[in-house]
Design a protein that fits this description.
Layout: H1 2-30, H2 37-64
Helix pairs in contact: 1-2
Length: 66
């Protein structure tokens, strides 16, 4: 049961990071990001790989708890 909770939390964090990454892409393509190009680019640079990494960990944890 604890393994499922951990994988669910990792999956939720991955979704939040992915939403932030997609939002950053939209902000950057809009022309005038609210937080500026640099900050928005940093957010995208961090949350893009983070979402993929968290998804991988969630899948690995879910498989391990089976």
């Amino acid at each position: 049961m604890v393994g499922n909770l951990k994988s669910n939390l990792l999956l939720a964090a991955s979704c939040i990071a992915a939403i932030a990454a997609v939002g950053s892409v939209f902000e950057l393509t809009s022309g005038v990001p609210e937080l500026g190009n640099l900050v928005t680019g940093v957010i995208l640079g961090v949350t893009g790989p983070l979402s993929a990494g968290l998804l991988y960990l969630a899948i690995r944890e879910a498989r391990a708890s089976m």
